[in-house]
Design goal:
The structure holds two protein chains of two kinds.
Chain A: H1 8-15, E1 19-22, H2 29-35, E2 41-46, H3 64-73, E3 81-85, H4 95-109, E4 116-120, H5 123-126, H6 132-138, E5 143-147, E6 150-154, H7 166-177, E7 186-189, H8 208-215, E8 221-225, E9 232-236, E10 239-243, E11 276-282, E12 287-293
Helix pairs in contact in A: 7-8
Chain B: H1 2-27, E1 33-34, E2 41-48, E3 51-52, E4 56-60, E5 65-71, E6 79-80, E7 85-86, E8 96-100, E9 106-111, E10 124-130
Parallel strand pairs in B: 2-5, 4-10
Antiparallel strand pairs in B: 1-2, 2-3, 5-8, 6-7, 9-10
The chains are: A alpha/beta, B alpha+beta.
Chain lengths: 299, 131
């Protein structure tokens, strides 16, 4: 299937595999269909793989990532790109072990069939050495790229262990936004939420509100992030924020229990609460259809 | 008798001082003392990977607090988000003060909000504010 011909019917077929969320607030289906162009495309978001983690919350910590990659490789059509939104590896105090985990992670994800694979760091990858080892393997921690009419901006809110973007990066962010037309189609990727989702659980970015404020003049701006190990959707004004599931263990819903401890592995339903996300983008309509996939197909 | 009155006053004063000195120990974890020069309650604590020396702090609503916290190892954070109270950073060997007044009763989490290692997520405690 050529994804340049990707259309609504094909999307619905795919959506039958997982759960679909229609993320756009734009008017009806007929209008979106009419506006659909050959530039429609797919991307896949994987998050919080925590390669190197060992513990009861995931007895298959050494195999879950590979299973998820196999599931991504089975998607048809294939996504234009795959992005990992942070916590690629589980943290360690040992710089050599950190590099060993990054090396292994990079080797494993080289099996992804999609031609373009992108990365951003999480605090487990970058906070203890301010992104030094991560950058050796994956380059810059904040950057931009364009794809089929969408301007993507990757922000790093983890290399500062205080979970801040920092004045320098905020100035860079402003410099990226200033030349853009107000109707530019923008997608921001971060690891932590840019809004105060649950500061009591460290689910926030100290100066994230400044970044959101800079985005407010743009009518087409959406944020995709990780960190909280669960699907979550939130709006700050007209800006939508979508959190992805983890590929190591799920965490409880914000404030649903006293501690943010991992949810227990369920032997009756292994890998439950884990998964990845496919995004079907219709740039012309600035519409994103989100489909959540499990790590392994339910039998 | 004037002498008896002075003796009684001295006993009362001594007893009051002794009770004040004994209060923190009697209160157990999270105990505090009142700063001499003000109504501020000063709570002294330390933090290390991955433990606060006080896991529970018990205070009263409306009483100004000063948390005096020192790291014993690496830089940490200290935040009580429900009261918008936060230390910029808690450095090893240096006393960092966080001032705020709990204006509502209940149980509230405090946490380290500077990533400090693989059990960072477990570095937290509870502030119990009595009415």
């Amino acid at each position: 299937m050529n994804h340049s011909n990707f259309n609504r019917r094909q999307f619905l077929k795919l959506a039958g595999v997982g759960g679909a969320v229609f993320a756009s607030g734009l008017p009806g289906w007929a209008e979106a269909q009419a506006m659909a162009k050959a530039d429609d495309f797919l991307w896949v978001q994987l998050s919080d793989t925590h390669w190197g983690f060992q513990g009861a919350p995931n007895p298959d910590a050494g195999g879950t990532l590979q299973k998820a990659i196999a599931a991504v490789n089975e998607l048809s059509p294939q996504p234009d790109f795959v992005i990992f939104t942070g916590d690629l590896t589980h943290t360690t105090d040992d710089p050599q072990e950190r590099r060993r985990r990054l090396t292994q992670f990079k080797e494993i994800v080289s099996a992804i069939k999609a031609k373009d694979v992108k990365f951003i760091p999480g605090e487990h990858d970058a906070s203890l050495d301010r992104g030094k080892a991560y950058s050796e393997y994956f380059g810059q921690t904040h950057y931009t790229f364009d794809h089929k009419g969408v301007h993507f901006i990757v922000l790093d809110n983890v290399s500062d262990p205080a979970a801040a973007l920092g004045e320098e990066q905020l100035a860079w962010f402003k410099s990226q936004l200033d030349p853009l037309e107000r109707d530019t189609r923008i997608v921001v990727f971060t690891h932590r939420p840019l809004f105060d989702l649950m500061p009591q659980w460290d689910w926030a970015t100290r100066d994230g509100a400044k970044a959101v404020e800079m985005l407010m003049p743009f009518k087409n701006a959406t944020v995709f992030y990780g960190h909280i190990h669960q699907e979550h959707h939130h709006a700050t004004g007209h800006i939508q924020h979508h959190a992805a599931k983890s590929l190591i263990f799920p965490l409880p819903a914000p404030g649903s229990q006293p501690k943010r401890a991992p949810l227990a592995w369920n032997p009756a339903q292994p890998y439950s609460g884990l998964g990845f996300r496919q995004v079907a983008a219709e740039p012309a309509a600035y519409r994103f259809d989100l489909t959540e996939y499990p790590v392994v197909k339910k039998t | 008798m004037r002498t008896d009155a002075i003796a009684a006053w001295t006993r009362r004063r001594w007893l009051k001082a002794a009770l004040a000195a004994a209060a923190p120990a009697a209160l157990g974890p999270g105990a505090y003392h009142v700063a001499a020069a003000s109504r501020e309650v000063v709570i002294k604590m330390t933090v290390k990977r991955f433990e606060f020396s006080k896991k529970v702090i018990v205070v009263k609503k409306g009483v100004p607090l000063v948390i005096e916290i020192t790291s014993l190892d690496v830089p940490h954070g200290f935040a009580v988000p429900d009261f918008h109270a936060r230390a910029e950073i808690v450095m090893p060997g240096k006393v960092t003060q966080v001032r705020f007044t709990p204006d509502k009763a209940g149980e509230f989490p405090f946490l380290c909000d500077i990533f400090c290692g693989d059990k960072h997520e477990e570095l937290e405690g509870r502030l119990i504010v009595g009415a």
